[in-house]
Amino acid sequence: MTQDNDGTVAHEDQKSTAQAAEKTRTLRAECLCGKVRMSLEVPVSRLPVVAYLCHCSKCRYGTGSPCIFHTMLPEGTRPSFVDESSLGSYLAPGAKYSYEFCSTCGCHIGGVSIDRKIWTVTPSIFKDYGPDTFQIRNHVFSSSAKGGGLSSIVTHMGDQPINSWNPDPNDETAKLVECEPEVGPDGSDRLRARCWCGGVSFTVSRPTTEVLDDTFMSRFVSPRDPRKWKAVIDACDDCRLVTGTHVIGWAFVPLAVCEPAIGVDLAIGTSQTYASSDGVLRSFCRVCGATVFFSCKRRQPSEKQAVVDLAIGILRAPDGVMAEDWLTWRARPSFADSGLRFDREFAEALNSGMKAWILTNWQPRMIRIRSFGLGRGPVHHQFRRAMASSARSYNDALDALNSLQTPFAVIEARRKAGERPDEASLEEMRCYLRRLGKGSTCAYVDSILGRYRQAYGVPRSVGLFTSPHLVAVRERIRIDSKPISEDMFAKYFFQVYDGLGASTDDSCVPPGSRPIYSRFLTLMSWHVFLSERVDVAVYETGVGGAFDATNVIESPVAAGISTIGIDHTFALGDTLKQIAWHKAGIIKTGRPAFTISQAPEAAEVIRQRAAEKGAVLKKLDVDARLLDGVRIRPDVDFQRKNATLAIALAEQALDKLGMAPKPGAALTPEFIDGLEQTEIRGRCEVKAEDGLTWYIDGAHTPDSLEVSSKWFANETADCPGPRIFIFNQQSRSEAVDFLNAIHAAASRHRVGKPCFDHVVFCTNVTHASSNRRDFFNRQVDPDSIDKLTVQRRFAQRWAELDPAAQVVVLPSVAEAIGHARQFAVGGETALAYVTGSLHLVGGVLSILEEADAL
């Protein structure tokens, strides 16, 4: 034998034979602790090496994983080890193969025949693993796994099905191991966990009263069934290298439910521990190598509350490998990104397979929230038959949609006549429906429910409808937090557009007519969500509430009213009482309604409206659980109020789905992740580029502009660079008065320093020569835009407020951005604050990110 430069031992006869035959490639592997290092000399012609997933009971009980990943070496070919004495070996009575594992960390290495001539090795720990070195082709002994285990989940790799091989049913090795149910001394259910050799054996109970009443331990109880524990497939790198398998299944259980008692040292029978990192302890059987537990300090608020990950491969569940009578599985594997980096093809197959498997298994129990009040009756199906889609494009759809915009002259005439939305607006929407068959809070609800969808497959999908859009119209209709595609938008747009146009019904609206722009999009959103079979739809009202197009829903799951301010005065009135009356119009008879702290006059109107409807109204204070380390962005009072409202609404939706968290319990990880990871585009958004930082917020009411300006002032208080202000609000004559509050809130309070060094007032036109259809707007005065009338009025007012500022008026967003960028020179970073209009903000973001949609 000789020793390579890295210390790997290779056999001279193997090397010489291989080199004489053909070119070879050396593949190297290493366990997590590094005590086992091995290499293989593989002829290049035999690459990629074929790998398979074995589901036999011995492999499961001997590794703790739901299956093992192996590749068989040709007879006489064996791996070369740096130090073979670091291997542990287990030969079961009557077995023809022994299992090899690292005696320090427990990593499964492979199997070898008694004469040590025939080897199988795990590909999961190879540093050279990739599509050119290993390729998974088969499941073996899948019939030995009751319920199929991972073989029923990972059924395809890419477009190709994975073949299954099983021996003759009469073969002893193919027999299905049946596990009997167990009960404890108190007669309650127990689930046995036992490694292959039996040296580690104990039981766990179902969640007890003590667990369910404990704010920490109850987090690990299934939100769908209090009799079950949460479970997940884990693809993290450390777990892969310490188990020797691509993935491992973990069940989350408190040590308090284990019998016999197990302490935080994880000592039980023949178990051995390995500290893989600071605060992390893992255990495995030192006799057969089976992984048993994973434990970390953050899941041990006290010894009595310690929760561990239990390897599901050693569970002896009567119902099968996945122990579905005991466990609720997350739909999305944990550390999925790690899995994608190691083996993208397998990880993608696992991700899609888990989702499909959970939907298939849980579908009978799922509840569709028909919050639209729409069924799929004869009218709906008849209408769909009439709405044959065409090959028309997204741009064709936008051209047709823009034709439904109400021209500025018509809006102005209605304004002068004092016309406002009324009950007739809703009746019109109901007529169109019969033919068919708010902001941050909505984003938070969508994000929370999305985390539950990823974790548990419920809800199956989430729809979100908001307005206005920032960059693309299709942003208004989202499924699972993503804007629908251009193709999907065009498809459903023309189904609705053509269907309404072909209608001859004249019972309530003219035959062949269509609703105006915003109402059409609302109508289309219902058609999209029903056609795409979403389970929960979150709707942000457009203008007001009482007569808004979204308010035709007769029995929503719940209604939420965020902070009410002065807005849309033409349509809603110019006092808080009048506006609150409209906002509270979304409250429905007998349905839950939630609101947060309001001005006294608004709060009283909401209370009265709820009483009139016989609705259960709950006024929410800021949820105390948000103060327990939950990172809300931006971390300001108004956003914590929005998050509080979102929590209540999400809990109502989950309750409808049979997954409501326990009242008063700590926020689950899905709630926390949903709140922390919510991306609210165009709201308190910070973007940095060379020499210039952008502070972007779509505030457009007096109250929100004051809050937004204070946010900018606080964020930049210690920044000495030049400050730039970009503002517009095109259609509100009173907007000029908003500048006073902005100036007061954003002032630097330094003698001789202007509030902003440079001020730009521009239109909402993104590019002077742009013809992008998503930004087309017929509802503004074209003459005013051409002459920059509004912008000149803003400039005059700002010159009065802050004579030291350099003020310019520009015709487009692109020119405003270019103007700001010229100050990104020198040693100090320039600071640009953009606010006043979501249309302006959308234009800025589309240029900064060169985005087609956000």
UniProtKB/TrEMBL annotation:
<keyword id="KW-0067">ATP-binding</keyword>
<keyword id="KW-0554">One-carbon metabolism</keyword>
<dbReference type="InterPro" id="IPR011057">
    <property type="entry name" value="Mss4-like_sf"/>
</dbReference>
<dbReference type="GO" id="GO:0005829">
    <property type="term" value="C:cytosol"/>
</dbReference>
<comment type="pathway">
    <text>Cofactor biosynthesis; tetrahydrofolylpolyglutamate biosynthesis.</text>
</comment>
<comment type="similarity">
    <text>Belongs to the Gfa family.</text>
</comment>
<dbReference type="InterPro" id="IPR006913">
    <property type="entry name" value="CENP-V/GFA"/>
</dbReference>
<dbReference type="GO" id="GO:0004326">
    <property type="term" value="F:tetrahydrofolylpolyglutamate synthase activity"/>
</dbReference>
<keyword id="KW-0436">Ligase</keyword>
<dbReference type="InterPro" id="IPR018109">
    <property type="entry name" value="Folylpolyglutamate_synth_CS"/>
</dbReference>
<feature type="region of interest" description="Disordered">
    <location>
        <begin position="1"/>
        <end position="21"/>
    </location>
</feature>
<protein>
    <recommendedName>
        <fullName>tetrahydrofolate synthase</fullName>
        <ecNumber>6.3.2.17</ecNumber>
    </recommendedName>
</protein>
<dbReference type="GO" id="GO:0005524">
    <property type="term" value="F:ATP binding"/>
</dbReference>
<dbReference type="GO" id="GO:0046872">
    <property type="term" value="F:metal ion binding"/>
</dbReference>
<dbReference type="GO" id="GO:0005739">
    <property type="term" value="C:mitochondrion"/>
</dbReference>
<dbReference type="GO" id="GO:0006730">
    <property type="term" value="P:one-carbon metabolic process"/>
</dbReference>
<dbReference type="InterPro" id="IPR036615">
    <property type="entry name" value="Mur_ligase_C_dom_sf"/>
</dbReference>
<keyword id="KW-0460">Magnesium</keyword>
<comment type="similarity">
    <text>Belongs to the folylpolyglutamate synthase family.</text>
</comment>
<feature type="domain" description="CENP-V/GFA">
    <location>
        <begin position="27"/>
        <end position="163"/>
    </location>
</feature>
<dbReference type="Pfam" id="PF04828">
    <property type="entry name" value="GFA"/>
</dbReference>
<dbReference type="InterPro" id="IPR036565">
    <property type="entry name" value="Mur-like_cat_sf"/>
</dbReference>
<keyword id="KW-0862">Zinc</keyword>
<keyword id="KW-0479">Metal-binding</keyword>
<dbReference type="InterPro" id="IPR001645">
    <property type="entry name" value="Folylpolyglutamate_synth"/>
</dbReference>
<dbReference type="GO" id="GO:0016846">
    <property type="term" value="F:carbon-sulfur lyase activity"/>
</dbReference>
<keyword id="KW-0547">Nucleotide-binding</keyword>
